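Session log. Operator J.P. requested a structure for one protein chain; no other inputs attached. Running the standard single-chain path with token output.
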Amino acid sequence: MARAIHLSSEVAPGIYAIPVPIPFPFKYVNCYLLRPNPNTSDGPVLLDCALDTTPARQALKAALEEHGLGFGDLEYLVITHHHPDHYGLAGWLEGQGPQVWMLDVEKSRGHIFWTQPEQMTQAGLALFQQHGVPADYLDDLAQQMNKTRSRVHPAQRLHTFSDGQTLRLAGMPFRAVWTPGHADGHAMLLRETDGVLLAGDQILERISPNIGVWAYTFPNPLERFFESLEKTARLGARLALPGHYGPIEAIDARVAELKAHHQERLEDLYQFLSETPQTCWTLSLRLFPGPLDPIQRRFAWSETLAHLEYLVAQGRVERLEHEGIVHYRKSLRGATI
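Structure written below.
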């Protein structure tokens, strides 16, 4: 007899992981269904919701049906952060019934990326140009942005919670934990009764989350990410359920690995610097060598910029501007470009 194929799996008591396909290298984003005890009056809750694509809608619909649920049965949709693979379906799902919730910081800093498209596109283009990104990597930027925006429908009646607030979700108490770095308003949710952490993209099993500077983000996101890693370790959680890949039990060890990874990257980048000023774009080609598609190359540039700005804040690197283009070099007093 063939084994049944389940579209969701229970990864902690009352919490079911739903891998939803996305057209990105990750291939899947983990959405989580929180199911209440039958003896309570609370409704089920969905954490994160993927891009608005036909495969994503089908995957979520089928997974909910395994539990005898439809989209209209959800009481809340809670968003860890505004990135498209976590937020794309929010507005559409809101129309099916559930309230959509997000950390207040992310509403003010990340949500605007989807509600002010023209301003964000122009600000992003200006930042790319300021840091030496060549025109051929920007030619299709507007087209790519429009494609992504067509798959993201922001919530129209967005509700917010704050850092440290306890939320009752599917009859279970979760404490909101603000962890900026990957996104300015990234939020995790800790079930303190058993140490289960809905971690979003704060810590991932196989790779580091992208830590990048964008036109609308905090100016030194890597510093904030390091602080958020310390905050994550202090929680004492026993199991992290991330936005991609599998659960993480050894949270402290993974935090240490991520810190070491970025420290190593900082030192590699510092070695590429010299007394001769270089653009972030040029340095990104050395820090991330090899062929990358235009989207991934821009992510590499953004991550390089985050590491450069961290080194500037430490006083190890100088930022200089020449003919409207920003350059970086090892710190030298009194030198001019």
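Operator note: The chain has a mean pLDDT of 94.
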